[in-house]
């Protein structure tokens, strides 16, 4: 017992010599191992021919793409426990017809390799960093893309002859990190460009699917930053022959999207087969981020199947849903020169614009007059017609029911459009409205001298529905309406079109009833003008409309209303005369009325007159129920306009006619009358 105590080390005492020697040997061994590895790393990096490994990479790229890979500086090594190989100014050559020499340029490439694998002659990359890669995708004038590489069979034949076949089984990557990348697309025919910036992107070898990568990053579209996550194929799917899988989720402020499917040959963008979905929960916010604008529309979703067939891409089927509305069909895009081609074939059981635009009260506000404006009503800026010269389009649209913001329903809407070489034709255009049918056509030439021609024909359309389609609220029953519109115009701006407008407008309204005390015509001054020449309208709860006619010619932007506009109710006849000059944007129109039966005490022989004149943006209203001021203004106006005044004997003729509506429909010139007849009491 005492001997054991004597031979044991006292607490806090020194370590025995044997133990100290053991610790020294352990530390020395560990240091030797570290030194051995360090020496091995130095020897490996000093003795291994790095240029030989870059030669393997060059050969692999040459085999997979048929393009040359060049390195401006490097490779050189950065020594550490995980040695790195650095290359600078790495470039992949473009096609001979490309707009620049390099299809891809990378400022710096850094590979962190595994030391032991390097000693075995393998390149196993723990981390690949790509700094500022710049990729350009472009097409030539024939629509051929620079991403279409030499076929694998051609590359294989060339490499076999040279005996320089790369060993992809000796190459592997665990992680890829991309910073400050840019991707741009250039149409070699039209010349337009589009691009996206990728601030960051990380790819990590998948733990679930061998050879694939898990992806996480962000890209920039306009002012929008889009987060991206998902999974894609690896190097063997890019260079080899197996399909390139793709599963991505994208999200930004206001929208999310998903892509899932595969590309048979990703190096050539051939065999694309992807399903896509988009959910726009806040469309205006999304549009603002993309640098454009949208009205406050309801959230919408898109589902589609994207495929390619040579130079043609199709999104078929595609379905767009928003609230109760839905549109489905197919969309095609074919690259070509001088113009690419777009095809659309869309069908919709219901399109509710009232819901889409959130316009539950829009029907009420549409009837209010716009606030007075300054400047031009019709913009003088050139119309945005350049886009019509960039593509050729064929389109078909069928809508069972379309609900307008006013609540008016359009049924059986059908239209076919063709755009070729900047010339747009919509023919036929057909729809059912208010129990009647409207057909027509439209032609628009976006060439050096833009022009248009529009034709519409309607039969038995209820007046209420017709006004509702124009955004005017009116409580009208009956009143079947026939219409014929044939107008042409030309010029670079809407102002030019209005100033050159020519043709004819003919509207014939049958018997009906207007409910309410006031008929709103969409402008306060017109509503007030009709109210002043029809005093019964202010007191009666409804008005019996017998007929109304608009039968006006248009020439050089001037709409002539003399002897061409009339209305008859059960109590008054109303005649409208004068001119509206759409080029100068000035109006000088007179409203004259005469009682057809007693309106009450003192109104049995009522005759009223109203004049609306001034700029279209802010016309003035002048009143004289007795008509004396009207006669006085006629003398001055007739002398000034050489007999073409808005208040002439022809208006009196209409008021005295058995039916002002029939007289307004007549194409015969008005009979000659004496100037004194203008002042004769009728």
Short overview:
With 682 residues, this protein is an alpha+beta fold. It is elongated.
Question: Can you offer a commentary on this structure?
Answer:
The longest helix is centred in the N-terminal third of the chain and has 31 residues, at 17-47. Strand 7 and strand 8 form a beta hairpin. The chain has a 32-stranded mixed beta sheet that branches. It is an alpha+beta fold. It has three domains: 46-205, no CATH class; 309-452, no CATH class; 501-682, no CATH class. Helix content is 21%, strand content 45%.
Q: Give the overall shape.
A: elongated
Individual helix count: 16
Q: How many E strands?
A: 32
Backbone structural class: alpha+beta
Summed over residues and divided by their number, the pLDDT gives a mean of: 78
Task: Using the CA coordinates, give the radius of gyration.
Answer: 40 Å
Main sheet makeup: 32 strands, mixed
Estimated helix fraction: 10-25%
Q: Unreliable segments (pLDDT under 50, ≥5 consecutive)?
A: 1-12, 155-166, 360-373, 599-606, 624-651, 672-682
């Amino acid at each position: 017992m005492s001997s054991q105590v004597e031979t044991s080390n006292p607490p806090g005492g020194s370590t025995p010599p044997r133990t100290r020697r053991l610790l020294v040997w352990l530390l020395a061994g560990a240091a030797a191992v570290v030194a051995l590895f360090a020496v091995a790393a130095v020897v490996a990096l000093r003795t291994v021919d790095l240029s030989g490994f870059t030669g393997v990479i060059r050969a692999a790229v040459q085999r997979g793409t048929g393009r040359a890979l060049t390195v401006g500086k490097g490779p050189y090594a950065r020594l550490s426990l995980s040695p790195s190989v650095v290359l600078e100014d790495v470039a992949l050559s473009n096609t001979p017809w490309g707009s620049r020499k390099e299809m891809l340029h990378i400022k710096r490439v850094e590979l962190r390799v595994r030391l032991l694998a390097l000693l075995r002659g393998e390149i196993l990359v723990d981390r690949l960093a790509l700094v500022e890669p710049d990729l350009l995708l472009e097409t030539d004038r024939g629509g051929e893309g620079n991403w279409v590489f030499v076929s694998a069979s051609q590359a294989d034949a060339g490499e076999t002859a040279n005996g320089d076949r790369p060993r992809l089984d000796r190459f592997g990557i665990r992680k890829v990190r991309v910073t400050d990348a840019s991707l741009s697309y250039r149409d070699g025919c039209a010349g337009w460009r589009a691009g996206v910036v990728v601030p960051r992107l990380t790819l990590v070898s998948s733990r679930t699917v061998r050879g694939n990568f898990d992806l996480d990053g962000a890209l920039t579209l306009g002012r929008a930053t889009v987060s991206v996550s998902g999974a894609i194929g690896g190097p063997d799917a890019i260079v080899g022959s197996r399909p390139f899988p793709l599963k991505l989720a994208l999200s930004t402020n206001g929208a999310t999207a998903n892509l899932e499917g595969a590309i048979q040959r990703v190096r050539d963008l051939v065999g694309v087969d992807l399903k896509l979905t988009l959910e726009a929960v806040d469309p205006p916010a999304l549009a603002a981020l993309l640098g454009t604008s949208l009205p406050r529309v309801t959230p919408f979703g898109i589902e589609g199947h994207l495929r390619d067939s040579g130079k043609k891409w199709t999104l078929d089927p595609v379905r767009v849903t928003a609230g109760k509305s839905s549109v489905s069909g197919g969309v095609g895009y074919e690259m070509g020169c001088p113009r690419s081609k777009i095809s659309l074939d869309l069908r919709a059981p219901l399109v509710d614009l009232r819901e889409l635009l959130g316009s539950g009260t829009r029907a009420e506000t549409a009837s209010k007059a716009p606030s007075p404006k300054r400047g031009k009503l019709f913009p003088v800026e050139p119309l945005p017609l350049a886009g019509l010269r960039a593509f050729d389009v064929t389109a078909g649209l069928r809508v069972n029911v379309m609900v307008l913001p006013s609540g008016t329903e359009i049924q059986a809407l059908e239209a076919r459009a063709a755009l070729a070489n900047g010339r747009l034709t919509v023919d036929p255009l057909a729809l059912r409205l208010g129990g009647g049918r409207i057909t027509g056509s439209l032609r628009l030439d976006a060439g050096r001298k833009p022009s248009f021609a529009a034709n519409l024909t309607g039969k038995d359309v209820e007046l209420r529905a017709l006004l509702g389609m124009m955004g005017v609220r009116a409580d009208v029953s009956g009143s079947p309406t026939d219409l014929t519109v044939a107008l042409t115009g030309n010029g670079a701006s809407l102002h030019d079109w209005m100033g050159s407008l020519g043709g004819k407008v003919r509207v014939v309204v049958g018997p009906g009833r207007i409910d309410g005390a006031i008929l709103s015509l969409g402008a306060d001054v017109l509503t007030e003008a009709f109210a002043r020449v029809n005093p019964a309208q202010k007191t009666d709860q409804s008005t019996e409309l017998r007929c109304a006619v608009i039968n006006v010619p248009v020439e050089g932007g001037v709409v002539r209303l003399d002897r061409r506009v009339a209305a008859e109710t059960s109590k008054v006849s109303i005649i409208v005369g004068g001119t509206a000059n759409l080029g100068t944007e000035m109006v000088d129109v007179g409203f004259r009325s005469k009682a057809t039966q007693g309106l009450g005490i003192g109104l049995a022989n009522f005759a009223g007159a109203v004049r609306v004149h001034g700029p279209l943006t802010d016309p003035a209203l002048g009143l004289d129920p007795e008509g004396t001021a009207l006669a006085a203004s006629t003398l001055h106006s007739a002398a000034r306009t050489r007999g073409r005044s808005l208040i002439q004997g022809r208006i009196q003729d209409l008021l005295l006619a058995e039916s002002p509506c029939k007289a307004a429909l007549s194409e015969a010139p008005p009979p000659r009358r004496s100037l004194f007849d203008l002042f004769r009491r009728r």
